[in-house]
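Dear support,

Our group has been running a series of protein-ligand predictions, and this particular one with flavin-adenine dinucleotide is the one our PI (initials K.S.) wants archived with full inputs and outputs. We had some confusion internally about which version of the output was final, so please treat the block below as the authoritative record. The input we submitted was:
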Amino acid sequence: MKNVLLTIEKNIQVGQDIYLMSLSGDVSEIKNPGEFVEITIPNYYLRRPISVSSYTNNSINLLYKVLGHGTKDLSTFEVGTKIDTLIGLGNGFDISKAKKPLLIGGGIGIAPLFGLCDAFNKQGIKPTLVYGARSIDDIVLVSELESKANVILCTDDGTLGFHGNVIECINNSNIDFDYYYACGPYKMLQFLSLAYPNGCVSLEARMGCGFGACMGCSIETTKGAKRVCKEGPVFEANEVIF
Ligand SMILES: Cc1cc2nc3c(=O)[nH]c(=O)nc-3n(C[C@H](O)[C@H](O)[C@H](O)COP(=O)(O)OP(=O)(O)OC[C@H]3O[C@@H](n4cnc5c(N)ncnc54)[C@H](O)[C@@H]3O)c2cc1C
Ligand code: FES
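Confirmed final output from the archive:
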């Protein structure tokens, strides 16, 4: 974990209430796709956790949805603004688990899968990616994803891609995979883990400290209580007690 000052290089709207922020600075502490950062937003006591969407040696991208006041404020930050950020948080995804990976993103849960695609691409693997959301307006950056993965889209209302949720889409698509990596709404991850135990899920929890000190983000697993911020956010699907 490291506390760094990052500079906003870009902060643009890319979908309905969805923003892409690029930040530059020393991010060498980030080791794995799926890690997250904690962003200080002035006037808020608690930092806000956001997944690292993708990263290089000296920059990161964050893809975030405006939900409440903190993320609303974040969306107004201008290029050049410096942000106090904790980086190198959480365990991230283990790409060694899959030879034929399936990536599954639900809604804003697509965020960390960009960097995961990059990691697989560096190994010469183009993963399959199922990306689902409520409606066409909630689906973002498709052409970028298509350059990194074989993308299958689905929407609950049928306005783009397969008409149905990601589980129905996977059941209908006959995808050849040996391990999956999923991030998205709690219910989606719960149903996925029941249908397909051979994968991992990236979880969210309300967080206090973000680095393992307060126990505020504990969840139940088959191996006892674990902290989403420290032992997670990525857990084996069959380990989480939903
Ligand atoms: C490990 C981790 C990674 C995350 N990555 C991303 C990401 O890449 N992109 C993104 O858009 N969001 C991500 N989130 C969620 C993000 O942290 C919250 O949306 C954000 O903190 C909301 O802040 P706010 O001040 O706008 O909303 P608040 O005013 O704090 O809350 C607004 C609403 O959002 C709910 N909420 C707030 N925080 C969370 C949370 N952690 N989990 C579930 N519901 C919450 C509240 O209950 C309330 O209903 C992540 C969360 C975690 C724990
Ligand atoms: S948020 Fe404090 S231990 Fe996880």
